[in-house]
Amino acid sequence: MDLQTLTYLVVGATFALYIGIAFWARARTTGDFYVAGKGVNPVANGMATAADWMSAASFISMAGLIAFKGYDASVYLMGWTGGYVLLAMLLAPYLRKFGKFTVPEFIGERYYSRTARIVAVLCLIVASITYVIGQMKGVGVAFGRFLEVPFEVGVMIGMAIVFIYAVLGGMKGITYTQIAQYIVLIFAYTVPAIFISLQITGQALPQVGLISTVADGSGTFMLDKLDQVVTDLGFGAYTEQKGSTLNLFMLTLSLMIGTAGLPHVIIRFFTVPSVRAARFSAGWALVFIAILYTTAPAVGSMARLNLMNTIQIGPVGDPQGNLLYDERPQWFRNWEVTGLLKYEEKNGDGRIQYYNDKNPEFAAKAEAWGWKGNEMVKVDRDIMVLANPEIADLPNWVIALVVAGGLAAALSTAAGLLLAISSSISHDLMKGVFTPNISEKGELLAGRIAMAGAIGVAGYLGMNPPGFAAQVVALAFGLAASSIFPALMMGIFNKRMNRTGAVAGMLVGLLSTLIYIFWFKGWFFLPGTNMAPNDAEHWFLGIQPESFGAIGAIINFAVAWLVSRVTAAPPEHIQHLVEDIRVPKGAGAATAH
To answer: Which of 124, 161, 371, 491 is most buried (CB neighbours < 10 A)?
Structure first.
């Protein structure tokens, strides 16, 4: 069976499964819509949380970043997994004990302020919309290649599917759909990884293959081989650190605390029946997440090795050592059609030169060989996981499975994000602030309308993304880190934190991070020039926009603390509320401030 037909069958079957589950588990009450009736089993919720957490950035884009950045991309592994541990230890049990539906509801009651609740909704929407852009980019990439439709059409198809099962089922439908999506995505990620690891190293486990020798009998370790291949073409060694230590540290920190501040993940812990179940759920989710995250380094590094070996088929410097463009493999032709892979003939030899022409020393050598510049003018990092099985010439059913997995990852996270946006509008703004007497039926309808509107906005922005899926997601984590996380942490662990300090901190943290991102992503311009300061020379202390969320969080903490110290302390009942959240009954009074 040809690849396209098989892909239609596999993807169609998974979509039918998701929609069928949504009909079976459709929400009939606001409790079902927001928190699945608080009756989800901890193991099932752990699996759903893992699917909610492992987005297109994890499935499609993270291995692509690892493929091209090497060691420096390890911050995504450390930041996202470390952040989940932070969330599970410091936030999830306490927020579940509080027992409300949403993060803004907690902030509104903890800081005894409708203003604080509205500001929290604003922060949530900004971070969530930014995050969902990355998911829609991933959907468009997958559909664009394998269903042979334009990128924009792929995004619209994804919007339609999410609309059906998220609007209909709410959190209840999303939860059980995400369980199915986790099974699809983890199977789709690990099966091709096993095949490719066996091809390159002879090891079935990709985690073992990553640190093993290649299967050509040379005794060379796989990572040493990759280092040699990329440095021979003028790139930096794959396993060496290239960025500044400060920037890498700040990016790791931003991803960690951003993870702990993302409402679509936090809200999952409101769906279990008890605090104890929330803790078990967090542990199971970490197990399910670890399966993909320990596989990703092998997937990324092996994808880079396969790509380089496909194009550079002979010794570096040999005029006959590069792939003839007219003899390029079918996978190359397929991805060219999408516009995500582009070749440009520069020296008229009909062969593909793929090297680092930004390296002056190597560029001089390449010019002496007759090379006139890097002819691979675009290799979108988001294609690497999806293209990897094709590059490795794996069976069509494996390729189709990867497509279904990538779509499952993107759609599962998009659904969770859209529900967080929907609930913040219908429950926190309408029910909590503007129309407190709205009926449950009216609130449920408002939630569905809000979700439909959010899907439309997310889809439009997903067609015009500001970067790779993982880059866009990193920006969202920075926004969550700088706005929501400090308010939650101080709300749980600082009885003296008041509403004025929390509101001031959230606004200053969010605005400072937004300004930095807008400035250095090229949306503002230097006065008197036509260019934006979007390179490392202009960054503050060499800190890239994706890393600035950690600085924004520090600003948030500092402003909130200072303002709270010069304004009135919270009412006594609020201080008792903090003690009750943090300390189990019978454990004595809380004394920490």
So the answer is: 124
Classify residue 428 by its DSSP letter.
I
Query: What are the DSSP calls for 332-354, one per residue?
Result: HHHHHHHTSEEE---SSSSB---
Q: Report the relative pairing of strands 341-343 and 376-379 from DSSP bridges.
A: antiparallel
The DSSP H or E segment spanning 433 is none
Tokens encoding 472: 């866009």
pLDDT tens string 526-576: 444 444 445 566 777 888 888 899 999 999 999 999 999 999 999 998 988
**What pTM was estimated for this model as a whole?**
0.80
Query: What are residue 343's phi and psi, to 5 degrees?
Result: -120, 145
Both tokens assigned to 325: 């463009």
Q: Residue type for 330, please?
A: Q
| Residue keyed to tokens 């009998």 | 217
CB 356 within 8 A of CB 233: yes
Q: Which residue has the tokens 């509080």?
A: 98
d(CA 417, CA 7): 27
Where would I find the beta strands (DSSP E) of 20-151? Answer: none
Instruction: Compute how many other C-beta atoms are within 10 angstroms of the C-beta atom of residue 386.
Output: 26
| Residue 535: burial class (beta carbons within 10 Å; 0-12, 13-18, 19+) | exposed
Q: What is the per-residue pLDDT for 592?
A: 42
- Collect all residues with Cβ–Cβ distance below 8 Å to 275 and sequence separation of at least 6: 93, 96, 97
Q: Please tell me the chain's helix, strand, coil percentages from 3-state DSSP, rounded to the nearest 5.
A: 70, 0, 25
**Residue from 107, 5, 132 nearest 457 by CA:** 132
**Pairwise CA distance, residues 494 & 574, whole Å:** 11
- 283 residue type, one letter: G
Closest CA to 121 of 133, 139, 109, 103: 103
Q: How far is CA 209 from CA 215, 255, 302, in A?
A: 10, 28, 9
Q: Is the dihedral of CA 436, 439, 440, 445 positive or negative?
A: negative
Please measure the distance between the N-terminal and C-terminal CA atoms of the chain and give it in whole angstroms.
66
Element (H, E) at 363: helix 360-368
CA–CA–CA angle 435, 440, 445 (5° rounding): 85
Domains of the chain plus CATH, in order, are 3-302+390-481 (1.20.1730.10)
Higher pLDDT, 295 or 153: 295
